[in-house]
Write a structure and sequence with these properties.
232 residues; Rossmann fold; eight-stranded mixed sheet; two-stranded antiparallel sheet; 7 helices; 10 strands
Length: 232
């Protein structure tokens, strides 16, 4: 059986809605948290698929989170040999950093359900499944497009919402895996100020989660299912 390793930067941001297509594609899923003592010796190369999930920290906060530098270094080794890799939100930012791009705070917090604008390259990719679908955004950082990467999607505030390199690397700033995961309540804890900066509230976000979540997850699953069929 093929293996998939999910790297979690916080316990409440797991693979969520992407679990079903990954398992359906024949992968046995394992996971590791970055604060687990085993993370330092984690093998980034051997898994057939590596999935980098989100988290509240910034890639540039390396003094506060010493594991970040190690993660970027090991991830760069995997990317150099073109092993299948998927990144979501912070995961996409770590991928960008591992490819030599700068990651930095964005102009505003972008939080809530909204569609991304999928460009011509994105329409010719699995991202076609999320066209016109409101998906969850929860970020305040952005990054330069890495050298050799192809931009796939944008929003008016954040131009770099998704990119790929070849068939084996896909990075998503947004969260098409989220919409049916009860751990979303953990995202809300202590996030009032963050949400206020983004112009939303916990109550409003819960309402949108209920209204848009299932459609977003269905589209995200279709996207990942197609992407997995195209891996080299």
């Amino acid at each position: 059986m093929k293996t998939a390793l999910v790297i979690r930067h916080t316990p409440f941001e797991g693979i969520a809605g992407f679990r079903a297509p990954v398992e359906a594609a024949g992968y046995e899923i394992d996971r590791v948290d970055v604060l687990d003592p085993a993370f330092g010796a984690c093998d980034f190369i051997s898994p057939d698929l590596l999935v980098m999930m989100g988290g509240p920290m910034g890639v540039y906060e390396r003094a506060a989170h010493p594991w970040i530098a190690h993660e970027i270094e090991r991830l760069a080794e995997r990317i150099a040999v073109d092993r299948p890799t998927l990144g979501v939100c912070l995961g996409s930012q770590v991928i960008a950093a591992a490819m030599g791009a700068e990651v930095y705070p964005g102009p505003v917090k972008e939080v809530g359900f909204a569609p991304v604008t999928v460009n011509a390259a994105g329409l010719a990719s699995p991202l076609r499944h999320i066209v016109d679908v409101p998906v969850l955004h929860w970020h305040g950082d952005t990054f330069d497009l890495p050298e050799g990467a192809e931009l796939l999607a944008s929003t008016p505030i954040y131009r770099r919402q998704a990119f790929r390199r070849g068939r084996n690397l896909l990075a998503l700033q947004c969260h098409p895996e989220m919409g049916e995961d009860p751990r979303f309540e953990a995202w809300m804890e202590g996030a009032g100020d963050y949400l206020a900066e983004a112009g939303t509230t916990p109550a409003g976000l819960r309402d949108d989660y209920a209204a848009h979540g299932s459609r977003a997850v269905a589209a995200g699953r279709a996207m990942i299912a197609e992407w997995l069929t195209q891996l080299d």
